[in-house]
Amino acid sequence: MFTSFIRCSVWVVILLTNAATVHAHHSFNADFNRADTLVLEGTVTEFWFANPHARIYLNVEREDGTVEEWMAEGNSRNNLIRAGWSEDTVQPGQFLRINGARARDGSNSIGWLPGTPLLGRDGEEVGPSGRSEAPAVAQAPPTFEVDPLWLKVPDGRVFGRLRGIALDENDHLWIAHYTGNLAANREGMLLGAVQDPPLSECCVPLPPIVEFDAYGNFVQGWGGPGEDYDWPHGVHGLHVDHTGHVWVAGEDPRDAMILKFTRSGDLVLQIGQAQPERVLEARATLGWSYPAETTSRDTGNVGRAADLWVYPETNELFVADGYGNHRIVVFDAETGEYRRHWGAYGDEPRDDVPGTPANSRGTGEGATQFHVPHDVRISNDALVYVADRGNNRIQVFTLAGDFLREHFIAQHTSSSSGTAYSLAFSRDPEQTWLYVGDTGNGRVRILNRRTFEEVGKFGQLGHYPGQFMVLHNIRTDSQGNLYTADLRDGVVQKWVNVQ
């Protein structure tokens, strides 16, 4: 199922609660399944603003004209008042779109997912978020200063093109890089020591996967072809999950697999298989956008996956798939079993439809397909954020793939790089800030995560500290510091949060 929008004549009661709140009578997690979500759209018929549980009733028409009744219990009127609600917050006749979790007992009940806003017909936010705690004091946007000497690369060693970075739970920085195409470019001089005969005293490439500690010291490196797995021809995506396992993906047409390793480099799981390449001739004309050897409907393989993320609550692997395919695909992180997938706007992805809008990227509506879903991140309130690189936009979904909203990043930018390369969240519990790696303009943008309002930015195009040539990845550590990886210059920079 690619979308779970319900457009039916339904009486629905939406839960207004906080995930950490234990009600006098019920607990959200006990009654509702966060992993089984849906989006309801409809017209309000009644807002029951009372104790012990507030309720919103919706009347939504099903395509076949039938009517169902839904009900869910909500938070107390007193808690909602403290969060800024009143009996006038929601009015009969209002159109609402609500992201909810299904009842565990199978009844026609839904709980509004904590922290997710009510949305109107045009995607505007309606009322407060419905959190049960008192409103938080407004925060000033963070400010950052670059620390150009933080990373301590071993003497005589060198990175190739940086493809992925990740922070583990110990704030260790992991880096995936690729040296395979350096010799054909001016950066080939960096590998003089490994030429035959040697051209210079320096340098020797680091292993494809490298770990540094929280102080920037080298810890270990590993990776490369092995007997019991298919190593990517173009290593790209990198993620360290909540259990400490390291996930690796590749962007070459033959890279139809994802690998899961222990932190010391022992294989745990391979999803998909390497494919024979039949599209080499397309590279000359299509550049990096040449097709994959799989399709966007393949349930056993990926197609040039760009990045990936494991959601701890469900232990599911979400994959931005990718440079060849046009979808988000989800697997069980323990078994590798296929779960589901979806394309732009939660629809079924198609490989025969252009991934960029016909009127270019400067104006108008977005493309009906993902161009390059280049990054995927899941927030603490169970929302899936996708960076659609070439379409200059972010799209937000439920865990089930229901489309919620989108936001364009400097949509007027016509650079071939695009503006939505990489995403990261601030590390406060609410994840107030969304950081966006805007490669086309060479900067990091700071957005209010709930409203998408831009509140700050830093960086510019260039080769010097604090600048980027190809800003490929951004990530944050537990202290709120931010890390950037520059694909072309092979440089990782640490940005210290000085707020």
Oligomeric state of the chains in view = single chain
Give the helix/strand class: mainly beta
Q: How many domains is the backbone divided into?
A: 2
What is the percent of helical residues? under 10%
- Low-pLDDT windows of residues: 1-25, 130-137
Instruction: Tell me the CATH topology of the largest domain.
Output: Neuraminidase
Overall average pLDDT: 84
Note the beta-strand portion. 35-45%
By CATH reckoning, the class of the largest domain would read Mainly Beta
Q: Provide the CATH superfamily of the largest domain.
A: TolB, C-terminal domain
Main attributes of the structure:
single chain, 499 residues, mainly beta, Neuraminidase, 4-stranded antiparallel sheet, 3 helices, 3% helix, 36% strand, globular
What does this structure look like?
The protein is mostly beta strands. It has 2 domains: 122 residues, no CATH class; 354 residues, 6 Propeller (Neuraminidase). 3% of the residues lie in helices and 36% in strands. The chain has 3 helices and 35 strands. Strands 1, 2, 3, 4, 5, 6 and 7 form a 7-stranded mixed β-sheet that branches. A 4-stranded antiparallel β-sheet has the order 10-35-34-33, with no helix packed on it. It has a 4-stranded antiparallel β-sheet with strand order 12-13-15-16, with no helix packed on it.
